[in-house]
Amino acid sequence: MTSSAAAPASLRRIAFATIIGTTIEWYDFFIYATTAGLVFAQLFFQPAGKEIALLLSFATVGISFLFRPLGAFLAGHFGDIIGRKAMLVATLVLMGAATTLIGVLPTYAQIGILAPVLLLLLRILQGLSAGGEWGGAVLMAVEHAPADRRGRAGSWPQLGVPLGFLLASGVTALMTGVISPGAAYLEWGWRVPFLLSAVLIVIGFVIRRSVSESPVFEEIAKRGKQARLPIVTLFKRYWHLVILAALVFVGNGTLGYMTTGGFLNNYAINVQSIDTTAVLVAAVFAATVWFFSTLIAGYLADVIGRRHTFLIGFGIQALVVFPVFWLVDEGGLPGLYLALLLISTGLGLTYGPLAAWYSEIFPASVRFSGVSITYAIGAVLGGAFAPMIAQMLLGATGTTAAVSGYLLLATLLGAGATLCLRDRSGIPLGPDHEAEQATGATIFASRTPVAQLAETK
User: Where is the Major facilitator superfamily (MFS) profile domain (predicted)?
Assistant: First the structure.
């Protein structure tokens, strides 16, 4: 951090801008995943047959994740060179344009094979945008914050993810249950949530343009300390941090995309025959729980540390991965609500502290590249194909036990990586402290005397 944190009024403005902008960005991303499990198999992949069409639909959700690292590379490179703010605005506009175009896309019945091809291309653009969005948002929040409030500040952009999921699920539930129920939703109602993005992007653009640049980057730029090739430096010196921190997110993302990726929704609707709108309303409930558990986790991260908060969250996840499917199988809609409550509580505790911890792991000159690329790689390894893998496991074994085993493995992997990283709460984030930032992030490396002294205070 620079010598002084932003004023309270500025912090409130930054909090509002990061939450609103990230909510809009992730609404766009999740509205696709929500719709993929409901209509894309029928409208864009129908000739493949019901089962294969559903797998292809979930595959398009996952394929976009493969392009998130590219988006992270581009945004990270330019974010470390020209600033965080410019990348925030650019990624927001790209996501909104791709989402709006999906809303006017012709179906397979209208233009044949070109329809799924165009759908996939637009989903790839969403992936590029999502890959660059997160790093800029979290650094704007964390680098403006006082050292003892970084966990809370880092949870602000994290809140945009459950809020985006809540908004996507809520709008879809409104379309399926009130405005365009039944055949009308399949005919035209599914398009409305995508077209709504055009309005939301204008709002987000205006808000994000109003915030000031990160003080850390301003100091880097003033001193001319931008890395010429930040990505090369990142992988040459800090590749081990990228791998470990990405695995931490794998533990969260794999379970998270059971809900946000549409698998659990599809399972409840098509296997357990629960009403579509009722399931979507339950998803709104899940997003609400996820929101509050993420918010609480941000506060906990400042009180008991990032690492301890993560380990509590992973412990909860490990305990619930088997019961959640039993609850849906035996309890119907009430069981689904309880399952989502359990999932969302663990998810929030392993998501709220992520922004602050990632920001404190990487040195200032490569921080945008580090947090963006790490998050994107974690998303690919964890969430990208989780719905498709779960669907394949269910189809191959006929039981959700295999799916639960897969989720438990990912959770234990995330917990193991968490144990390999040190908590760096309060470490200075500015360019004058690069030497301290560059050492001691893992349990395998020695810490600088400055870092050891800070931990004893």
Answer: 14-426
Would you say residue 2 lies in a domain? Answer: no
User: Closest by alpha carbon to 411, among 303, 301, 319, 282?
Assistant: 319
Look up the CATH number of the domain holding residue 333: 1.20.1250.20
What total number of domains does the chain contain?
A: 1
Domain of 56 in residue numbering reads as 8-456
Residue 17 lies in a domain: yes
How much is the pLDDT for 164? 86
Q: b/e map of 319-352 (b: 16 or more CB within 10 Å)? A: ebbbebbebbbeeeeebbbebbbbbbbbbbbbbb
Provide the residue type at 33 as one letter: A
Within 13 Å of residue 101, how many CA atoms lie on the same side as its CB?
A: 16
Distance CA 436, CA 363 (A): 8
3 belongs to a structural domain: no
121 Cβ neighbours under 8 A, 6+ residues apart: none
Instruction: Give the pLDDT confidence of 208-224 residue by residue, as tens digits.
Output: 676 666 666 677 666 65
Q: Are 262 and 61 in contact (CB under 8 A)?
A: yes
Residue 6 pLDDT > 60: no
pLDDT 10s digits, 98-123: 889 999 999 999 999 999 999 999 98
Which residues have CB under 8 Å from 125's CB, separation 6+? 94, 95, 97, 98
Residue 389 belongs to some domain of the structure = yes
The distance of Cα 445 from the centroid of its chain, to the nearest Å, equals: 29
Residues near 163 by beta carbon (within 8 Å), at least 6 away in sequence: 19, 22, 23, 26, 27, 287, 291
| Alpha-carbon distances, residue 347 vs 210, 219, 277, 368 (angstroms) | 31, 35, 24, 24
Compute the distance between CA of residue 412 and CA of residue 194 in angstroms, rounded to an integer.
36
Helix (H) or strand (E) holding 130: helix 114-142
The pLDDT of residue 455 is 44
